[in-house]
Design brief:
- The protein is built from eight helices and seven strands, in the order βαβαβααβαβααββα.
- 40% of the residues lie in helices and 14% in strands.
- It folds into two domains: 82 residues; 53 residues, no CATH class.
- The chain is globular, with a radius of gyration of 17 Å.
- The strands form two sheets. It has a four-stranded parallel sheet with strand order 2-1-3-4, sandwiched between helices.
- With 166 residues, it is an alpha/beta fold.
- Strand 1, helix 1 and strand 2 form a beta-alpha-beta unit.
């Protein structure tokens, strides 16, 4: 089973990075730790937090609830910590999940997005993905290439065998 995450409000950008890699990563913006823990338990999610009080809870200490206590402030360093702590592999599905709302993206034909993307993008791109919830359209433009480059650099720094990200 693939690892799923829930990130508290202190590490929200980390959830976005994990989504870029193809991981199911909820952002939890509420203040109630009890609700965060309940969601994690019910859905089998790893909690990502900077809150030391969550890490001290009996469910976490007993090992029943997996939690990564994030040490860094920088999202890239946070991602490196999670990849290392959980030994995440590099054979992922980059950009298969909506960066905004964590839903699995659906392939769309060029004809379906004609009036939904800028004219230049429509002329230069052939593959599109759409979020079924927020209807955001994704394509493999320069922004996508830059993010893949950043992820590749990070993954190779953590695991020298991650050549898929080259």
């Amino acid at each position: 089973m693939e690892t799923k995450f829930i990130a508290d409000n202190n590490v929200g950008k980390l959830a976005r990075w994990l989504r870029m890699m193809g991981y199911d990563a909820l952002s939890f913006g509420e203040k109630d730790d009890g609700e965060l823990i309940e969601i994690a338990l019910n859905e089998g999610r790893v909690i990502l937090t900077k809150d030391t009080q969550i890490a001290k809870r009996r469910l976490v200490v007993s090992g029943r609830l997996k939690t990564v206590l994030i040490q860094e402030d920088d999202p890239e360093s946070q991602l490196r910590q999670v990849v290392t702590a959980l030994d995440l592999d590099c054979h992922l599905r980059p950009f298969s999940i909506c960066l905004e709302c964590n839903q699995t993206l659906i392939p769309r034909s060029k004809a379906e997005v004609k009036n939904l993307v800028p004219p230049y993008v429509f002329r230069t791109q052939n593959e599109y993905m759409e979020c079924p919830t927020c209807h955001r359209i994704y394509w493999r433009g320069t922004h996508w290439q830059a993010m893949v480059g950043q992820l590749g650099k990070l993954m190779r720094a953590v695991n020298e065998n991650c050549h898929q990200w080259t």
